[in-house]
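To: structure desk
From: M.T.
Subject: fold request, one chain
Message: Could you run this one when you get a chance? Sequence is below, nothing fancy, just the single chain.
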Amino acid sequence: MDVMSIDVWREKGSSVVFDREALSSLLAAGDAISLRQALSWLEQSLPADPPERRESLLISGLETVLQVLSPPEAYDFLIYRVRPVIRELQAAWPACGLVFRFASPGQAFAEGGMNDEVLFRRRDQQTVRLSDGLWDGGATIGLKRIVRATEQGGEETLGYHVARIS
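Reply: Done. Structure tokens follow.
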């Protein structure tokens, strides 16, 4: 899987970010919107511009949904409810990055399979096929791990990003 260490993930495409430090500047810039609100835009009318014309839209609540639904239901929710939101928002607001906020630590995410798939490990240790559900299997070509350099000369993972899904 390719890596990215620059902040492009904040300004375009969609990301899942679990690192508190990386999220702190987005939290300071404004309140996160709820997943419920983002989903409602597809049912009502999508605003012409992102809220407060932000370059990044922080969306909270997806992690909770993945924790409470069964893994197959969570996977279907990603495909049929969240992926359409990503497509619509990236088409309407191409200069706005969508960031799904997760509170779980990095250990809750696993990379696996030959397709560079990202799995989310729930509290009950069951897994949800996160990247395939959110971004479709074809998007794994563009799936990147968001990293930050450590003082020891290594890298730590902050989340995952896809520039665009079709």
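Reply (cont.): The chain has one domain: 2-45+54-162. Let me know if you need anything else for the meeting.
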